[in-house]
Design a protein that fits this description.
84 residues; four-stranded mixed beta sheet; alpha+beta; Smr_dom_sf; Smr_dom; Smr domain-containing protein
Length: 84
């Protein structure tokens, strides 16, 4: 069992639907495989993609899937999602 799963959102950054689908699929895959940590690569840029990902993760129906989400310490271009 891997200790983390990584998903890179650079290929889908233009579409909110594709971002939501990629994050949801990654969350389900990580939970199904029993992986404790999901790394979502948003890139440093202007921070708009990171904000959209954090807003999506903050929705009540998505929040039930994980324990905690945070911007990676020392790396603004990555969001860490700690699963239950």
């Amino acid at each position: 069992m891997p200790d983390k799963l990584t998903v890179d959102l650079h290929p889908v950054f233009r579409s909110d639907q594709d971002i939501a689908l990629a994050v949801r699929n990654a969350l389900f895959r990580a939970a199904g495989q029993g992986v404790p940590l999901l790394e979502i690569v948003t890139g440093k840029g202007s921070g708009k993609l990171r904000s959209r990902v954090l807003a999506m993760l903050g929705q009540p129906h998505v929040k039930k899937l994980y324990r905690r989400a945070e911007v990676a310490p020392g790396n603004d271009g990555m969001v860490l999602v700690h699963l239950k």
